[in-house]
Give the backbone structure.
Amino acid sequence: MKRLYTFLTLLLLFNAADSHATGYFKKMSVGLVYIGADNCGTRINCAVRVEKGNILFAGHSDCNNQGDIPATTAQQTGSNIVVGKLDSNYKVLWVKVFGGDDALTEQAKALCRTKDGGYAIVSTTASTNGSITTGKGKDDIWLLKLDVNGNQVFEKNIGSTGDDRAISITEDTAGNLLILGASNGADGDIPAHYGTAAENDWVLIK
């Protein structure tokens, strides 16, 4: 069945430092644009106003070299993480694809602008290939750092052998990244778990 591209209302969240955004919190509509292609699905989960009035957005897509979504690698199958930038008139400046062969849960959840002028994106993934070099278990929290042009600076996988999910990210006044997530694991990077395997704990990562 033909799927039209996602009709986006960009959602912004501003804190005092204008640093983070996620669809889970206060929303502000700043414009309507089309991102994606006619025969595949694209969803934007978070956006934030950055330099020069530009807008950085992130989400996921199963498009491959279609519409605004560039070609993926052989290891990037199914849904992948997409990060892009619009100018102040909502014109697409660039779109980048990151991820691996996790076709189900791989998606960007939140992002923030960092003090060095780049961006940090936090995602959930079960991949261990493509853009993602290591895996901790099932779903992991994946941190991706980009420069101002969307080029990858570094990436880090955080989690346990259980299910670990990303929720939000921000940068503190010292330049440290703070990640909020959820997990039912108790090994690897997650020190303890306080419920059953069917219950998640909040995790705060610095």
